[in-house]
Structures are given as structure tokens and as C-alpha cells.
Amino acid sequence: MGFTKSVTITFFSNTFLFFLSIISTTILARLLGPEGKGVYDVASNLLTFATLFLGFGLASSNIYFLGKNREHLEEIIGNNILLTCLGIIPLIPFYFLNAHYQFQFLRSVTNIQILIVLLTVPFINYKSAMINVMLGLQNVVEYNRLNIIDKVLNVILLVIFIFTLVSPSSALLATLVGTILLIIWIDYILLIRVKKLPRLNFSLMRKMLGYGFKAQLGNIVQKLNYRLDIFIVSYFLPIGQVGIYGIAVVMAETLWGISGSIATIVFPIISSAQDKKEMHIFTNQVTRISFTLIVCCSLILVLLNRSLITPFIELWFGSGFTTAAVALVLLLPGVSIFSISNILANYLAGVGLVVKNIYSSIVSAIITVAFDIILIPRFGINGAAIASSLSYIAFTLATLIFYIKYTHCRWQDVLLLKRTDLVLIKTALSQRFKKT
């Protein structure tokens, strides 16, 4: 499948996934209110970090090693199963430590809710790893289909569970059940329909862990950049503020749909590409185009904030969430700039320079923690938004520097739209309209 078609499919898939996410967020906001949604956001944040720490980078490893050699499919499946099971072990002491000491940043989350989260962790890790097997095989259609089924299942089960019992616990249970159901379907595809039997390959496992550790360390530190503030807001502010800030974050991150779709496809292509020079010229072009689109979208959102965004938030999510509009505007500069790092970081990962992403993430994480601690007590969720924007910008600048040094291209080639790009866009659009 061609790159443009793959990106188009992935973009529309991501757009639909975003639409489903908005539905989920709306249900949670409307039924739980700022406080209940805040509890759910903190619990979900715990789930995110637990899966990152205990995922061993298998999702990235699957893409990378299948891009190198698809004949390792059965060994990769077997290795994923074993490592996912081993990831359960550290969850047990964490649960009992929190039950005994009640960590301050989790003070609003009950022990039952934490138990549900920890039970979900290994299932989420296995699901993510197996979905990325499809991407490693460059089966973009199946990859997007599974992601859509996953989100549709979650929405359906969320409606069933939360209308049965209106509480954050029921929403968390919906995630657990939906994940298990999707795993059953993925295993049916790989183990029965494709007839692949899991096998262990400890030599390959060591390589997967080596690559995955570097990739995951970068992911963990990067996730700190735009998710740690949830815990810090929870630590310093009332739990309802977490729910309001979560609305701003969800809306701001929609801009990553364009660059995220491109980055998703770029990684496996670069991992298997032979001509690296041609690939960095190609990467420059898609980065320029996506960056221009995202900056334009951000400017439109800023201009329409008072006349459209604030009324939209009040109408859609409820009057208790209107203060999210200011935080959204403060997030936009960082989110816009950070969007290109999705593509550039995936390029660096695709050529084996994962460690560069780790360096960028460390710089960004330091800025996140420092400014969150300084700004959140003084400015609340607006301070968190400013800190996140500064963090995103720092990560992007560092990634851009590493990318330029590796490819020997100019920063203008990466960021500034060229006449040839406009010609390409015009040609692509005219061909698309002719087909329709």
C-alpha cells in the first residue's frame, strides 16, 4: 500500500478514534462531573504509566524487528506473551504499598479502583503489543481496524457500565472488559486465522528487550512531559480541577492527529528502507506540510476561543468545565510545535537512534517538573498548561537538533513550506477530486 493511501487511512481512522474519544469524554464529564472525571483521569493516568513501565517497549520492538525480518513473527508473539506475564509481578507490591501508605497523588482514588487499574495493565500491554505486530507487518488496514474496534468496544461498554452504576469504578471496569474482548479477537486472527503458533526465542528476546528498553525509556520520559502534570495537579489542587484540565488536554491533543498519522506510517517504512537519504528528504517534506497545517489550525482555535470554543465547552461538556478554554489556548503553542516531533522522533527511532529521543525527553521532563511545581500552586491548571507548552517546545527543539545533525539538512528544509509542497498538495487534491 502506498504511503499517501496509508496516511489517509490512518488519518481518517485517527479522526474517527478522536470522535469516539470525545464521546467517551463527554459521557464521563456529563455523568461524573468535574470531581468524578478527575478521579477517573488520575486512575487512567496511573494505568498509562503502569503500562509504560511494564510494557518493556514491546510495541516498538515488534514494529522494528518485524520491519527487519517478518519470519520472526511466531517468536515475537511467544516472547510477547512471556514478557507480558512477567510484567504482572511488580504490580503486587505497588498495590499493598499504596493500600498501606496512601500515596498523596492518588488520595482521591479508592483501593478498589487501583486494583481494577492494576488488573488491566497486563491486558493493555499485550493488546498494544499485538496491535503493533500488524503495523510491523505493514498491514495498515488491519492495524486501523483493530484500533477502531478497540475504541468502539470501549464506548459501548462505557455506556453499559456507567449507566448501570454512575461511578469512576464502572468506567474503569469497562476498559478492562473491552481490552479482554479485543485480545480474544486479536489472538483469533494471529493464532487461528493466520495459523501462527507462539514460540520462544531467547536470543531475539534479549534484542527486543535491548531495543525496547531504549525506546520505552524515551516513551516514559516523554509521557512525563504531557501526563505527569495530571498527578501534580491532583497533588496541589482539588480533584475537580484535574477533570477540567483533562478536557483542555483532550481538545489540544486533537491537533496531533495529522502528524501522528504520518508518524505512525513513517516508523515501519524507515525501519525497512534501504535509501536513508531519500527517506530524510521525504520526511522533511511531510514534516513541513503537517507543521503548516497544524499551525493554521491552532491559530484558528485561538481566534475563535471566546466566540466559539468557550460556548462549545459549556454546551458539550457542561458549565463546570468552561475554565478549560483558557488552559486550552495556553496549551496550543506547545502542542503545535510538538506535533512535528512525532514525525522526527519516529524517524530517529526508525534509523536506530532511539537514544536521541531519550535525551530530548529528559530535557523536556526536567522542564515539566520544574515549571509544574512553580506554576501550578500559583496559577492552577493555567500554570500546568504553560509548563506543558514549554516542555513540548523544549522536546521539539532538542529532537530537531538531533535530526538536523544526523541528516545534515537545514532547519528551513524541515519547517518552512516550499513552493514544490504547494504544487504537490494541489496535484494530490486535483487527482483526488477527479477520482470522485
Please characterize this protein's 3D structure.
This protein is mostly helical and 436 residues long. The chain has one domain. The protein is 86% helix and 0% strand. It contains 17 helices and no strands. It has helices spanning 3-54, 58-68, 73-86, 91-101, 111-136, 140-164, 168-193, 202-236, 239-252, 256-272, 276-303, 305-317, 324-350, 354-379, 381-407, 411-415, 419-435. Helix 5 runs parallel beside helix 7 and helix 8 (202-236) runs antiparallel to helix 15. The radius of gyration is 21 Å and the shape is globular.
Q: How do the SSEs run, as a string of H and E?
A: HHHHHHHHHHHHHHHHH
Question: How many distinct helices?
Answer: 17
Write down the domain tally.
1
Describe the global form. Answer: globular
Number of strands: 0
In angstroms, what is the radius of gyration? 21 Å
Give the percentage of residues in beta strands: under 5%
Helical residues, percent: over 70%
Report a brief summary of the structure:
The chain has 436 residues and is mainly α. It contains 17 helices and no strands. The chain has one domain (3-429).
Topology:
Elements: H1 3-54, H2 58-68, H3 73-86, H4 91-101, H5 111-136, H6 140-164, H7 168-193, H8 202-236, H9 239-252, H10 256-272, H11 276-303, H12 305-317, H13 324-350, H14 354-379, H15 381-407, H16 411-415, H17 419-435
Helix pairs in contact: 1-5, 1-6, 1-7, 1-8, 1-9, 1-10, 2-5, 2-8, 2-10, 3-5, 4-5, 5-6, 5-7, 6-7, 8-9, 8-14, 8-15, 9-13, 9-15, 10-11, 10-13, 11-12, 11-13, 12-13, 13-14, 13-15, 14-15
